[in-house]
Design brief:
Helix content of chain B: under 10%
Oligomer: heterodimer
Order of helices and strands of chain A: EEEEEEEEEEE
Number of strands of chain A: 11
Helix content of chain A: under 10%
Distance between the termini of chain B: 41 Å
Radius of gyration of chain A: 13 Å
Number of helices of chain B: 0
Shape of chain B: globular
Order of helices and strands of chain B: EEEEEEEEEEEE
Number of helices of chain A: 0
Shape of chain A: globular
Strand content of chain B: over 45%
Chain lengths: ~120, ~110
């Protein structure tokens, strides 16, 4: 099956700094990538949908200036959490799909802790 | 809009017990249905899927049948193992929407 990687798997940063999370599709071209946030013992909350070469579409309530998403190539999307605060601590998961596929492939997730 | 209602957990079973996790959905058009599994500290893995009515998805001993008449996609396994302990999510995609709509997840713990 298709493989999606995320880097880093865990990151700890200080309040006020920015953190970048990478999501890569390793063996297919991902025309669409999704970013989710998961709180402890809860379901996944879709944050935004990004299509290669265009601006991301953010879900209601997600601050686009705080969560910057870039999908510059068919194999890479990045999520940058700017001026991070402790309440941004969470598990961030990306997924990717090709243009003709309906199935999404998920990355292993990134645990962000803001101190 | 689309929605997925999933049996609330947590569910605790003894090894070799029978498992059912209920899932019902509301969707426009003809959705594709999925079960994902999340092991501790990891991302989601697709467990099984069904793309049309009466299809049965199966994998690793788990099964789920797409029931259009009852708008359900219940997950079953005849004999669970300790290694099946995880969180299970029911999900769907529908029509032109590319996003997955997830249920709330069900925590399964299997005791030896």
């Amino acid at each position: 099956g298709a493989v999606v990687s995320q880097h880093p798997s865990r990151v700890i940063c200080k309040s006020g700094t920015s953190v970048k999370i990478e999501c890569r599709s390793l063996d297919f071209q991902a025309t669409t990538m999704f970013w989710y946030r998961q709180f402890p013992k809860q379901s996944l909350m879709l944050m935004a949908t990004s299509n290669e070469g265009s601006k991301a579409t953010y879900e209601q309530g997600v601050e686009k200036d705080k969560f910057l998403i870039n999908h510059a190539s068919l194999t890479l999307s990045t999520l940058t959490v700017t001026s991070a605060h402790p309440e941004d601590s969470s598990f961030y998961i990306c997924s990717a799909k090709g243009d003709s596929a309906y199935e999404q492939y998920f990355g292993p997730g990134t645990r962000l802790t803001v101190t | 809009g689309n929605s997925v209602t999933q049996m609330e957990g947590p569910v605790t079973l003894s090894e070799e017990a029978f498992l059912t996790i209920n899932c019902t959905y509301t969707a426009t058009g003809y959705p594709s249905l999925f079960w994902y599994v999340q092991y501790p500290g990891e991302g989601l893995q697709l467990l099984l899927k069904a793309t049309k009515a009466d299809d049965k998805g199966s994998n690793k001993g788990f099964e789920a049948t797409y029931r259009k008449e009852t708008t359900s996609f219940h997950l079953e396994k005849g004999s669970v193992q300790v290694s099946d302990s995880a969180v299970y999510f029911c999900a769907l995609t529908s029509g032109s929407a590319r996003q997955l709509t997830f249920g709330s997840g069900t925590q399964l713990t299997v005791l030896p």
